[in-house]
Predict the 3D structure of the following.
Amino acid sequence: MADRPGAGAPSLWRLILIPSVITLAVTLLRLWGELKHWPAVLFNPAAGGAAAVVGITWLVPVLGVYFALKLARGTGDARAARVIAVAVLALVVVFAVNAAVAAIKGEQTSQAIIGVFAVSSVLGGLVGLAAWPALGRILLAYGFAARVPVALLMLAAIRGDWGTHYDAPPPGFPAMRWLGRWFWTGLLPQMTIWTAFTVIVGTLAGGLTLLVVEGRGGRRPARPAVPPVPRGAGLRTAARPRAGRTG
């Protein structure tokens, strides 16, 4: 049976609004920190960001937990074991496709590596969406809300040569005009690789969260069930004569 959020579950856009605003704030803070040359451990301007502490990548598992807890209060029929297994399968798909292409093609250009990674990420992301569809839709919407501003920011950074990780090309990337470089290092990765990362890793974190919830006695409905009162019951009660009264 398809997983559907319960009647008490909040809407998708309400769920992702505040996380998206927080994500945008972190993105702008990181840009400012790199432009001001703040400590590299927090704001690393090297290509790829070099796992700097301030970054939106770290928000993905946290928000996977957050969204899963919101959905777990509903009446969906997702099961932790299946969610985790399918999310792991999605990761396997991503890396298996890349490994297979590398074995067949051998030496590849930077664009080919990015292109293959983009395709494998889309395939893995589709698998990840099937793990817990309700959570997958939320993570996909949040992923685009988080990554579209980054892609636009990279366009400006590459065009203006700002000296941040947003415009730093990968090692060995060939020289090309700024618009082509933005497509290969900005637009394509943000809309495929990083969006799929959000879905897969967020779903894995959500599955682990669901495992904890199930271990604590299962999910509870968003609102306690109240037995319906038959129509007219109150009138019958009011009309019933009291004991010991004869009129």
Q: What stands out?
A: The first helix runs from residue 12 to 35.
